[in-house]
Amino acid sequence: MNGAHDLGGSHGHGPINPDPNEPLFSQEWERRCFAVTLAMGFTGQWNIDQARFARETMRPGKYLETTYYEHWLHGLESLLLDRKLISQSELKSKKAQNTPKKIIPNIESRRCSICPRKR
Amino acid sequence: MPHDGHDNGSKLSETELRVRALESLLIEKGYVDHAALDQLIETYETKVGPRNGARVIAKAWTDPEYKSWLLSDATAAIASLGYSGRQGEDMVVLENTAKVHNLVVCTLCSCYPWPVLGLPPTWYKAAPYRARAVSQPRAVLKEFGVELSEDVEVRVWDSTAETRYLVLPMQPSNTNNWSEDRLAEIVTRDSMIGTGLVGSNA
After folding, report:
1. Is any Cβ of chain A less than 8 angstroms from the Cβ of B63?
2. Is B24 one of the annotated active-site residues of the chain?
3. Model pTM score
4. Closest to A100 (Cβ–Cβ): which among B30, B44, B85?
5. Chain centroid, CA B105 distance in Å
6. Best CATH choice for the domain B49-193 from the list 3.30.1330.60, 3.60.21.10, 3.90.550.10, 3.90.330.10
7. Could you give the CA distance from residue B38 to residue B32 in angstroms, rounded to a whole number?
8. Touching check for A10 and chain B: CB below 8 Å?
9. Could you give the CA distance from residue B47 to residue A108 in angstroms, rounded to a whole number?
């Protein structure tokens, strides 16, 4: 799929400005977004390619004006809705309304060495 | 511009609220648990990072057998030091020489060898580097303060979801008798991405 994420060779993005002293996460929400995305990834309901695809479904204009972990957040919300793990109304109300979907672990989920094992 | 600043601030707080809501929803539904989230963060903040990659490089510099293993089967050679797993399942090591300088990018995303370098820096994930590393690598290198002579070939490697690259930088010539530990100290993250060189006075 081509789109805004396909940045190789494109012009007009300005200088790189590397910051040698940047923290690993610049905001607390980035830290939490990273962790929930990884933890849900470890449940094996999608693979890395599907996770990337979900991030790349962002509207191109929006993709370019948002930051990396905002792409992650968009991707995670899309995957959770698509797999019916949460509903649109739960996302809006910020409260669980439906019975959680049973998560069936698969090969991907066994790869996580530090996640709690569900037997 | 104060107006921009305001927009940015309110956008961030909206994002912050979305993340918080999503996290508590996922916990409430039992898909993730709080302790596991904290453990994941702790792992990536304290255990996984470029010090791991520096150990690999220092070993390659001091042990020729290890180096040839690393260049022929990087995934196994790196795993033998205890660094393996997510986002490092298929590793390739690229050797810098007096004639060839390697530079790693992920134009499509932010693919990066997590087990040896940790999480990528912001610039690696942002548009300017992803756009220009492939089209103007020498100009990009200059922005990192690296100027290579014209007779050095620059090879740019675009990472994929599967294949992750680690650059084996050139060892500074005056460090030949240094111990592996001391060498590991001077290997920088950027030198293993290719946006830096290793100096002996670090």
Report:
1. no
2. no
3. 0.86
4. B30
5. 10
6. 3.90.330.10
7. 11
8. yes
9. 22
